[in-house]
Write a structure and sequence with these properties.
The complex is a heterodimer of chains A (329) and B (454). Chain A is of the alpha/beta class and 329 residues long. In chain A, a hairpin with a 2-residue loop joins strand 5 and strand 6. The longest helix of chain A has 26 residues. The N and C termini of chain A lie far apart (47 Å). Chain B folds into three domains: 84 residues, RNA polymerase II/Efflux pump adaptor protein, barrel-sandwich hybrid domain (OB fold (Dihydrolipoamide Acetyltransferase, E2P)); 183 residues, Thiamin diphosphate (ThDP)-binding fold, Pyr/PP domains (Rossmann fold); 127 residues, Rossmann fold (3-Layer(aba) Sandwich). Chain B is 26% helix and 23% strand. In chain B, the strands form five sheets. Chain B has a seven-stranded mixed sheet with strand order 11-10-12-13-15-14-20, with helices on both faces. In chain B, strand 14, helix 7 and strand 15 form a beta-alpha-beta unit. Chain B is elongated, with a radius of gyration of 31 Å. Classes of the chains: A alpha/beta (329), B alpha/beta (454).
């Protein structure tokens, strides 16, 4: 992994730091539980886990205000938890039950929350990019100062529609933050084998869109970069690109044997760069928390995740009538 | 607390697998992420990671065992100070996902034997009428709705300053300004996606495709993003929007600019499809389409743009979806068509009348929802049916109508239904070949004679 540009560390309170720790840990534990339930056959189909990438959404959500929107691809569980959606509803959707966010009709890749301005959960690589710019278009049309976080991966960054969107977003000054979650592998194809440029954010230059690379394993660096991007978009200056260099520990989806990278590569990232461990260190060395405090947090998170799993198992399958609803409004 | 480690499902289709190799032994301490075993699935050999921390208390399934069912306990994980024997009997097998209910999905309601048909007139008797082209009627329909609702806007190639490639949006930039009448770059995929996102975000976009042939670039957003999101979101959000533009052949513009997409779009649950013939329907259906809370495909026709019809001269003329219009009553045969096909259907009916054959001509106006009740009711009277469309024969609108007739009015038929369609070829350029590739009035006349045995 190329050494990402270090962004200036912001001043951050102990409470904020603890909150990031909690939010990232919730995603980690939730995803581990989802992997378990998948193994038990309770979750079916595709299931793309976010483990390793937690700092991206937690860092950026720390910069959002009420009214802002977010949209992402199929690796979406972390985004939903980070914007405050209920883990129970997310897990129940994973198990395909009636209390899921989409009444069991969407699944892992297709969840939405009008309430939290979370616009999915999209399964076609790249398609959520113009959709996100469209949500930003609607805000600008109405004259709001809201921004839209449009997340996509390094693989999606090669889709043609992304550049059609960059062009129009720049042309029309859309308040859209394009967040490239560069986890270095588009399914099993590494960035070097799929992408002509080493720094994907630089492609924005062709459209006059500013951007930067960010260390995505460092939640504080992500937050700092997010603040710059949000300030730019909110002030009416148009879109901004954040290429966040991150890493997924697990396979692309549950059925990925991950033969395209070495075990050592993954282990090294886990040992040296883990986003949760980094914040844990900051909390302990800064004397913001004791080992016991962190243990208490771990227990709380585990309880929340276990409750979501129990809820998702207990919720009934959708009624058969649901087959025929929600086709037309 | 001792916990069982279960044989995992490692792919969407895996039911059992081979426990190829243990990477840990009894007494080893593991933490989250450590590889515990290699498991061979139906697709690949996968590494199986530990999720919880603990000590391997007991290995229950030896390496090399084949056919290990998913959810079988393969090992026991214990905490410091525990013994593997702390696990009493085998914990209850994990609840498997309830299997899908047997195929007892409710069959779709069948149309009653004598279908109920809405025969109310589109406007009250005595309504003043004015002459308008389809082009003007479309513009008026859009403009009236834009005056009514600020969330409605028009976007597309050349819709603003150029006044529309086919002059449909003439004058609209002057009235509504650049905020609401928006020229786009030539990037159908991108702007269809942006418009769909804007619809998710609460606006009501009208997207003009310079022709529907170019909408192929945007097909993914029309189908996967606009049509399916309401369902995928459990009803939370959808795309109230209109995709519109000319569809089908114009004149001598070749294979890539001359395709009729009616049958393609009609297939998609989540979309509605309107395909008007007359100016009054163009206007009335357009206003209904813009007010509809779903994505509507509005298929226009370049040749019809300049045709003049009577249009009701009233403030708010709308036409409901799913209500066919009977243009001509008859007793010997039912001719079903829509859009430009109506030209041939009506001409054929005139010619047939001269020969003493009385044709009933139905304009479907919308293909989804489709007013099949009006077709069935008519066939109960005429016992014969010919469908007319410009599109290709295989998987055509006519073939769907035929299947509905077979299922709901088979006993009323005195002859097989004939589908008059465009020829099964890409559109040629040469004038004579193009004439022959399109459906003609004479072919409709011949089909009617065939089903009436005349």
């Amino acid at each position: 992994m190329a050494a990402p540009k270090k962004t200036k560390q912001p001043n951050v309170s102990a409470d904020d730091l603890k909150a990031y720790y909690k939010d990232m840990l919730l995603i980690r534990r939730f995803e581990e539980k989802a992997g378990q339930l998948y193994g038990m056959g309770l979750i079916g189909g595709f299931c793309h886990l976010y483990i390793g990438q937690e700092a991206v959404v937690v860092g950026l959500e720390a910069t959002a205000k009420d009214g802002d929107s977010r949209i992402t691809t199929y690796r979406d569980h972390g985004h939903m938890l980070a914007c405050g959606m209920d883990p129970k509803g997310v897990m129940a959707e994973l198990t395909g039950r009636e209390d899921g966010y989409s009444k069991g009709k969407g699944g892992s890749m297709h969840m939405f929350s009008k309430d939290k301005n979370f616009y999915g959960g999209h399964g076609i690589v790249g398609a959520n990019v113009p959709l996100g710019a469209g949500i930003a278009f609607a805000d600008k049309y109405r004259g709001d100062d809201n921004v839209t976080f449009t997340y996509f991966g390094d693989g999606a960054a090669n889709q043609g529609q992304v550049y059609e969107t960059f062009n129009m977003a720049a042309l029309w000054d859309l308040p859209c933050i394009f967040v490239i979650e560069n986890n270095q592998y588009a399914m099993g194809t590494s960035q070097q084998r799929s992408t002509s440029s080493a720094e994907i954010y630089e492609r924005g230059k062709a459209f006059g869109i500013p951007g930067e690379a960010v260390d995505g394993m460092d939640v504080l660096a992500v937050k700092a970069a997010g603040e710059t991007a949000v300030a730019h978009c909110r002030s009416g200056k148009g879109p901004y690109i954040l290429e966040i260099k991150t890493y997924r520990y697990r396979g692309h989806s549950m059925s990925d044997p991950a033969k395209y990278r070495t075990r050592e590569e993954v282990q090294k990232m886990r040992d040296e760069r883990d986003p949760i461990e980094q914040v844990r260190e900051l909390l302990l060395t800064g004397k913001h928390a004791t080992e016991d405090d962190l243990k208490t947090i771990d227990k709380e998170i585990k309880a929340v995740v276990n409750a979501s799993a129990e809820f998702a198992k207990a919720s009934p399958e959708p009624a058969l009538e649901e087959l025929w609803t929600d086709i037309y409004a | 607390m001792a916990t069982e480690i279960l044989m995992p499902a490692l792919s969407p289709t895996m039911e059992e697998g081979t426990l190829s190799k243990w990477m840990v032994k009894e007494g080893d301490t593991v933490k989250s992420g450590d590889i515990m075993a290699e498991i061979e699935t139906d697709k690949a050999t996968m590494e199986f990671e530990a999720v919880d921390e603990g000590i391997i208390g007991k290995i229950l399934i030896a390496e090399g065992t084949e056919g290990v069912k998913v959810n079988t306990a393969i090992a026991v994980l214990i905490e410091e100070g525990e013994s593997a024997d702390d696990i009493v009997a085998s914990a209850p097998a994990a609840e498997a996902a309830p299997s899908a209910s047997p195929a007892t999905a409710a069959p779709q309601a069948k149309a009653p034997a004598a279908p109920i048909v809405d025969t109310s007139p589109d406007w009250p008797e005595g309504t003043p009428m004015k002459q308008q082209t389809v082009r003007e009627a479309l513009r008026d329909g859009m403009s009236e709705e834009m005056r009514r609702d600020d969330a409605v806007f028009l976007m597309g190639e050349e819709v603003a300053e150029y006044q529309g490639a086919y002059k449909i949006s003439q004058g609209m930039l002057d009235e509504f300004g650049v905020r609401r009448v928006i020229d786009t770059p030539i990037t159908e995929h991108g702007f269809a996606g942006i418009a769909t996102g804007a619809a998710f975000g609460g606006l009501r976009p009208i997207v003009e495709f310079m022709t529907f042939n170019f909408a192929m670039q945007a097909m993914d957003h029309i189908i996967n993003s606009a049509a399916k999101t309401l369902y995928m979101s459990g009803g939370q959000m959808g795309a109230p929007m209109v995709f519109r533009g000319p569809n089908g052949a114009a004149a001598r513009v070749g294979a890539q600019h001359s395709q009729d997409y009616a049958a393609w779009f009609m297939q998609i649950p989540g979309l509605k499809v309107a395909m008007p013939y007359s100016a009054s329907d163009a206007k009335g259906l357009m206003k209904t389409a813009i007010r509809d809370n779903n994505p509507v495909i509005f298929l226009e026709n370049e040749i019809l743009y300049g045709r003049t019809f009577d249009v009701p001269d009233i403030d708010d003329h709308t036409v409901p979806f799913g209500k066919a219009r009977i243009w001509r009553e008859g007793t010997d045969v039912t001719i079903v068509s829509f859009s430009i096909g109506m030209t041939y259907a009506l001409e054929a009916a005139d010619k047939l009348a001269e020969e003493g054959i009385s044709a009933e001509v139905i304009d479907l106006r919308t293909l989804r929802p489709m007013d099949t009740a009006t077709i069935i009711k008519s066939i109960m009277k005429t016992n014969r049916c010919v469908t007319v469309e410009e599109g290709w024969p295989q998987g055509s609108v006519g073939s769907y109508i035929s299947s509905v007739i077979m299922q709901e009015a088979f006993d009323y038929l005195d002859a097989p239904v004939i589908n008059c369609t465009g020829k099964d070829v890409p559109m040629p350029y040469a004038a004579n070949l193009e004439r022959n590739a399109l459906i003609t009035t004479d072919e409709v006349v011949a089909a009617v004679k065939q089903v009436t045995y005349k």
